[in-house]
Structure of Probable branched-chain-amino-acid aminotransferase:
Amino acid sequence: MGRIAYVNGRFVPKRDAMVHIEDRGYQLADAVYEVWALFDGLLADPEGHFARLERSLAELRISMPMSRRALTLVLKEAVRRNRVREGLVYLQVSRGVATRDHAFPTTPVAPSVVITVSRVDRAATEARAAKGVGVVTTPENRWGRCDIKTVGLLPNALAKQKAREAGAVEAWFIDDLGLVTEGASSNAWIVDQDGTLRTRDTNANILRGVTRLSLLDVAREAGLKVEERPFTPDEALKAKEAFITGAGSLVLPVVSVDGKPVGDGAPGPVAMRLRRLYIERAKATAI
């Protein structure tokens, strides 16, 4: 059975899925998205993702396309039809189809909704975590509302390409003060020399990561000291450990920054423990 997509009220073969050429998400990046991790066919961190979706839509003055309950049913049906147990669910909501104009349509249009589901090889991701990954740094060049999870991701795409060409997995954006903001598709963390977990606070121009938020709770419940305080790339290199978080990466140890080793150049015990604890929590609270 081929993969199935949901597009504006219909489940269709992915090869046949399409949106109108004047969809504002396609032409103007006038759209938001969310990505859920799937564990045993269930949606991880549901409350965090739904809350962020609703906030992002509200910030752009796009209506929720359906109730949270109805959307949950559609997401679950997409998972069922694709027969995926371990993977990712992608949801995109645009303002809808209208004659191209930068300003909002003057007459109401229905939001466009797209859902796709993909498989993840958990064994491969565990192997990658056990080995650790590299990151590169790049100047912060994104717009000033990264707290809204929009599809306007060209700077992120360019940063990811820079990482790939350097043999790394992620890129960390560096602001004008020389501080790490976040990754191109993840939040950035270190375990400093005092054993304190540090990650950038959400008063900065960063995405309010759902995995990040869950991990803050996990870390505090585990008795770890946590500070929402920025760090520099040099502090990351001098740290005991570093890692990234996101729906796709979960908790992924970082072993090098710009080709230089973090700590002893191997995944550290804190990151690996937090990865295990986060996955346990995600599975226990998934719907």
